Amino acid sequence: xxxxxxxxxxxxxxxxxxxxxxxxxxxxxxxxxxxxxxxxxxxxxxxxxxxxxxxxxxxxxxxxxxxxxxxxxxxxxxxxxxxxxxxxxxxxxxxxxxxxxxxxxxxxxxxxxxxxxxxxxxxxxxxxxxxxxxxxxxxxxxxxxxxxxxxxxxxxxxxxxxxxxxxxxxxxxxxxxxxxxxxxxxxxxxxxxxxxxxxxxxxxxxxxxxxxxxxxxxxxxxxxxxxxxxxxxxxxxxxxxxxxxxxxxxxxxxxxxxxxxxxxxxxxxxxxxxxxxxxxxxxxxxxxxxxxxxxxxxxxxxxxxxxxxxxxxxxxxxxxxxxxxxxxxxxxxxxxxxxxxxxxxxxxxxxxxxxxxxxxxxxx
Length: 364
Fold this sequence. Notes:
The chain is an alpha/beta fold and 364 residues long. Helices cover 36% and strands 15% of the residues. Strands 2-10-9-8-5-3-4 form a seven-stranded mixed sheet, with helices on one face. A two-stranded parallel sheet has the order 1-12. The protein has a two-stranded antiparallel sheet with strand order 6-7. Helix 1 (15-24) crosses helix 6 (243-260), helix 2 (43-60) crosses helix 6 (243-260) and helix 7 (263-283) packs parallel to helix 9 (346-363). It is globular, with a radius of gyration of 21 Å. The two termini are 27 Å apart. It is an enzyme of class 2 (transferase).
């Protein structure tokens, strides 16, 4: 039985990457050591981390005046690092189009009770269960604010931002965790991008931060571990980094570059692959997708429901038995969710559609 992993993260990794990691696991490039056990100060790992950065820079066309840092703590740690480093004494705006955006705003509010800055909820679609990306009037944004924070892809709700909003000249900071490398963004449109690796980049354990040099903090922070400038100047090696996660990420970057043909080709594949499932759902009067506007649809996370919660539960149980794993929707929204990240095979989408057709015929 073929297993298709629809997990929202940690998620499917490219098979060639896993095979290369397997082949090198005991003896990395004749070093006599595994990447799992070699020193992060060794010449072998120094080359790994530098190559990872160089390939990511090429893939995303990252300008020279941006630093690339590989950090720990997941995307969630960035919810606190951002205002701590960048917003003290200023306002910071939050566009909340999903649960993770709300968490970023909530953490900022919590931090503002001890650090002097003002987090402001710019707009939210929470009242409609985040079924669309909320709009706002740019003129309401103080042009002296530190940043506007947004989430480019809402993993739970299946919405995404592709065309960046007007922010009245205020720099944009983006949580790009769940669609980095799956859609083309112009890095120069952002002051800072952060992304947890465990969806489109690699295994859990490393977070990529891309930050414009003039946006780095001037003042030392509470902890060196939470200080962007210290981490950037140390080249991601201030302390022992998540070495194996960085190594797998490097292999994924190589895969996107050499086997896929780059981010634009990857984005094309993602649009076509997700489009197959969206087109079927649209043609069905049994399944529905909760995203209000087609332009807001994620190419990575596709939630859908049947006519009832009982049928949703039956669908998940039958799908799981047939090898469609982790397709149950997030507990906050229910239903189903097909996370079809970059490494997820097109055939898996086709096979899921075949099952959906069969399930509909039997339960309509």
